[in-house]
């Protein structure tokens, strides 16, 4: 006769979710070490925006942004405009790298292992978002240092607002990276994201001001709104509510798409 041992009443079989869904500094530290260990992505995210800024910005460092207000009279150079654009571009690159990380985790079975832990999906996504923001801040700092080195001088408020706009706007591209990461196999993520980011930067007005038919196309891209907000304190333009609506709309679209893709991936695994 088989005897079935009952579980003592003192032992709970319930699965307790840790505070904040499992989000903690230890998990964030592991995520950051894994990101920084990928030297190719780090160098690409830090060096490329700085290199492009120097290639473009050095040529126009003595060109006033407003011809009626020369640099010698306290005006800003076109280099300042390019610097803020490249800071946004650097954040775009670092933000979308979250998609590559998700795709690699899925291919290695790490996502499956995480689902066996008390870590909630929201906390897992939050760790990747914070990691992307940290790398984005490093990318902004690298571009800003290069800008200051070649002579860019602005009011402190312009530096700060430009950095905050680029950093917070990068949430749009973090959501895009997560969406692609849950839809595309790991070996194809960066092959897809590389040209996509370059296209969005080009038609979003980060490499040069848009005009004509390119502007008609560019105003619908997610990059356009972020760039306009980041540069508005420098250009002195009135706050563009349409640019803010552009950022908010694309953030909702990409975040909703990433959530749906995540649920589909959870059901499949």
UniProtKB/TrEMBL annotation:
Keywords: Antibiotic resistance, Membrane, Transmembrane, Transmembrane helix. One of its GO terms (molecular function) is ABC-type transporter activity. The chain crosses the membrane at residues 42-60, 80-104, 125-150, 156-180, 192-210, 241-262. It is found in: Membrane. It is a multi-pass membrane protein. Residues 26-212 form the ABC-2 type transporter transmembrane domain. Coiled coil: none annotated. GO terms for cellular component: ATP-binding cassette (ABC) transporter complex. One of its GO terms (biological process) is response to antibiotic. It holds the Pfam family ABC2_membrane. Signal peptide: none annotated. This is Membrane protein. It comes from Psychromicrobium lacuslunae.
């Amino acid at each position: 006769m088989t005897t079935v041992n009952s579980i003592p009443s003192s032992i709970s079989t319930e699965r307790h979710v840790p505070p904040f869904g499992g989000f903690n500094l230890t998990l964030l530290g592991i995520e950051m070490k894994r990101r920084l260990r990928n030297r190719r992505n780090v160098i690409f995210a830090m060096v490329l925006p700085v290199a492009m800024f120097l290639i473009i910005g050095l040529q126009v460092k003595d060109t006033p942004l407003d011809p009626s207000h020369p640099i010698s009279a306290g005006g800003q150079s076109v280099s300042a405009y390019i610097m803020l654009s490249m800071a946004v571009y650097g954040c775009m690159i670092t933000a979308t790298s979250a998609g590559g990380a998700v795709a690699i985790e899925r291919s290695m079975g790490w996502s499956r292992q995480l689902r066996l832990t008390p870590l909630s999906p929201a906390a897992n996504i939050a760790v990747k978002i914070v990691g992307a923001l940290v790398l984005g801040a490093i990318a902004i700092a690298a571009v800003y240092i290069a800008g200051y080195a070649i002579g860019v001088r602005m009011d402190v408020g312009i530096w700060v607002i430009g950095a905050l706009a680029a950093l917070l706007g990068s949430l749009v591209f973090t959501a895009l990276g997560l969406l692609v990461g849950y839809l595309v196999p790991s070996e194809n993520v960066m092959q897809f994201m590389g040209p996509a980011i370059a296209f969005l930067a080009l038609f979003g007005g980060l490499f040069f001001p848009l005009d004509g038919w390119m502007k008609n196309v560019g105003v619908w891209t997610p990059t356009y709104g972020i760039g306009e907000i980041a540069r508005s304190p420098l250009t002195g333009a009135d706050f563009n509510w349409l640019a803010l609506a552009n950022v908010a709309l694309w953030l909702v679209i990409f975040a909703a798409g990433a959530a749906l893709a995540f649920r589909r991936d959870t059901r499949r695994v």
